[in-house]
Give the backbone structure.
Amino acid sequence: MEIILRQAVENLGKTGDVVKVKSGYARNYLLPHGLAYEATPGNLKRIQQERERLEAAENERRGAAQGLAAKLEQVSLTFSARVGDEGKLFGSVTASDIAQQLESQGFHIEKRQIDLHDPIKALGVYRVPVRLHADVKPEIRVWVIKS
């Protein structure tokens, strides 16, 4: 049986693909869960319209993210911290600290968008990526200085 996928299905295909599956799999799983349409000419037209609408929305989100990324590339954050021996910090600079300082500068970035794998625990200059979109990841400069 030929079907049109409405959503990406693992090991089967992505949205809008026309795939051939066993009729029981289509009738019992894909169609009732709303993951696919039957491959009729009317449904082919419907999925094409959905794809165009989704692509337009995706392009709009990507454009907004690129505009914000251009502004974020210019941002430089400075954190002053108490330092112990060998330049190690008492405490650390975390993603939530960076998000708070970005918020104070007028950027609405959530801490989960900041791609800081481990907290910063030493003096120096760091480049921290920010995930705005799957294709857009600007880096901000974070300076950690002695207070």
